[in-house]
Amino acid sequence: MRKLKVYLDTSVISHLLQEDMPEKMADTRQLWEMFKAGRYDVYLSTVTLEEIADCPEPKRSELRKLLQQIEFVTLDISDEMESVAHKIIDMVIKAMMIVSTLQRQLLQNVIVSYHGILSIL
What we know:
Helices cover 60% and strands 11% of the residues. By secondary structure, the protein is mostly helical. A three-stranded parallel beta sheet has the order 1-2-3. The longest helix is centred in the C-terminal third of the chain and has 36 residues, at 79-114. The chain is elongated.
């Protein structure tokens, strides 16, 4: 049977040290034991590793030490992936601008209606 492929982002790894959220930390540690046992094919990206490198000490060292406990494949970012991500960001920004315009128009309609004005010029 093939192992399930699992992608870990920084937040999941960080939950191993999340003492202010003991339940989430316990769940993540339980999952981590399964990663250590090799039950899953684990993947990280260079983005995740860069985010860990940006963590302050001692957290950075602790996270790196935890990563040494498991086998994982590092996924690199290609130019095509960067391009797709930028296109999605551009689409989201345009959608947010449309929503913002619609919100303003709706607010104007509510103001007019609230004050009993029958037409907008």
